[in-house]
């Protein structure tokens, strides 16, 4: 199989490329990435010389570049990891998020339609909005109504609807996955877990929004990559698959666990003014992908978190390289 992976120099996209090259060495991978502040060429250093890997520096909003890549590489499927994804940044610069996440997706879809290529959209559980903290019986299913809270999640929800419209209107073979919060190696330091690790390492205050009780469902990034692999190989056209880790934690507990691993004091936790429109709780029902494709998460949170902390402590050069782009 030939896969064109957009946003492959970013956190989840790069981990997906590593997973594919390791588990499907017969496949060919083309990475298309603009190399924004969140994309790092250093991340792909270990695979750049592999015979079945190619990197193309391009923007998914560049129609000519996208069509050229698809026409020349002839992929069987385009997997769209490319996105502006940080909620805080979306509040301050909505136009960038709408341009990349909506228009960029539309350009990819048009190219896939033109060249008769399958398409897979990487989405987020944030498109569903949030759940009451006290209603632990409630979870997001694929039938949950979309109710995004931030410009970021609204842009992703919009893209999802456009993908589904191309399935119905043009008969495009496309699938969507909506995943919970990822953690693992190569995640940008602006996100909670790597930010906590790096602040703790320097004994700096660790900012936590509000009262720290907002709950997220956490999934180790390799489990997410394996789920996407299952969907692109066995998923049904026009279907949505939720992907969850089954590990609901509030933000204070996550930060506290990292401090425990690093033997740092919890006094480093500093509660700051809450983010506007901050979702209270995410919880993902992933029974559909479990039943239909026989996928389930394999890495428990404590094991994955310890592995993640160790990775950041051992990869100071990578951290410095991506921080220099911020």
Report on the structure:
The chain has 326 residues and is of the alpha/beta class. The strands form 3 sheets. The protein has a 7-stranded parallel sheet with strand order 3-2-1-4-5-6-10, sandwiched between helices. Strands 7-9-11 form a 3-stranded mixed sheet. Helix 1 (11-23) crosses helix 7, helix 2 packs parallel to helix 4 and helix 4 runs parallel beside helix 5 (151-170). The model has no long low-confidence stretch (mean pLDDT 96). The chain is globular. The chain is 42% helix and 17% strand.
The H/E string reads EHEEHEHHEHEEHEEHEEHEHHH
Broad structural category: alpha/beta
Biggest sheet architecture: 7 strands, parallel
Helical stretch count?
Answer: 11
As a whole number of angstroms, the C-alpha radius of gyration is 19 Å
Q: Please indicate the percent range of residues in DSSP E strands (runs of 2 or more).
A: 15-25%
Low-confidence stretches: none
End-to-end gap: 35 Å
The backbone outline, from C-alpha atoms, is globular
Widest beta sheet: strand line-up: 3-2-1-4-5-6-10
Helix-residue proportion: 40-55%
Oligomer: single chain
**Roughly what is the average pLDDT, rounded to an integer?**
96
Total beta-strand segments: 12
